[in-house]
Amino acid sequence: MIRVRKLVKRFGLKTVLRGLDFDVQQGEFVAVLGPNGAGKTTFLRILASLSRPSLGEVVIAGCRLPAQAVALRARLGVVTHQPLLYGDLTAEENLRFFARLYSLPDPGERIEAVLEQIGLAPRRRDLVRTFSRGMQQRLAIGRAILHDPEVILFDEPHTGLDQNACDMLDQVLRDVAARGRTVVMTSHDLSRVEPLATRFDVLDRGLICASAAPRDLRGNLLDFYREALAK
Fold it and tell me: Worst-scoring range by mean pLDDT, 29-38, 134-143, 158-167, 197-206?
């Protein structure tokens, strides 16, 4: 579902990604772990077609980036650090707007289901600019899953969420995975990703330096992560 070869990303004289290779099969849930500055957000932005690679090959769901970015976006859901919502629209209006962009037929029932799933049905008619950071993140998650995309990218999605919202997100992730969707999520919270992911990749200094499935972990995820960074 995702194929990345020799991916390089430079910002001026600084090289953030240094020939990175990455493959994800359909239905996998890959947690990309790494310290601050490792290149996780840059990598996810390239997968989301929000940033162009300097060099290398990126193919997602058969679409080659950046040339086929428009075709890919209809098959992709993305949650970034910024909610990227319309503050002067209500929660329901935001979802209805994106439903039109995704050409969802009769979106009312789907919007209602998503609002219930993310716990915002009681606030559906409130302007998004009145929402807390955590509530906006909830709505961004709802937008990402609204059109039931084949591939969903989450960049540190638990950031800014309270405990109840984190539990909601975990359930959303389980539901998405149960439907066979492909998920790539960056995270620094090992306790959150350990029960969810089917693979853990460690990104450090612009390269994937280690990869393991849960069954391959010799100890716990923290031990694996520490050993990967120490290499």
Answer: 158-167
Q: Which residues contact 76 (CB under 8 A, 6 or more apart)?
A: 48, 49, 60, 61, 149, 150, 151, 152, 153
Q: Inform me whether the pLDDT recorded for 160 exceeds 80.
A: no
Beta strands in the chain (DSSP E): 2-11, 14-24, 29-33, 55-60, 63-65, 76-79, 151-155, 182-187, 199-204, 207-212
pTM here is 0.92
With 0-12 CB in 10 A as exposed, 13-18 as middle and 19+ as buried, what is 163? exposed
CA distance 183 to 79: 11
- Environment class of residue 140 by beta-carbon count within 10 Å: exposed (0-12), middle (13-18) or buried (19+)? buried
| DSSP conformational letter for 68 | T
Please check the confidence at residue 106 and state whether its pLDDT lies above 90. Answer: no
Tokens 């099969």 sit on residue? 25
Read off the DSSP letter of residue 215. Answer: G
Question: By C-alpha distance, which of 168, 220, 219 is closest to 194?
Answer: 220
Tell me the backbone φ, ψ of residue 26, rounded to 5 degrees: -60, 130
- By the 8 A CB rule, do 90 and 125 touch? yes
β-pairing, 207-212 with 199-204? Answer: antiparallel
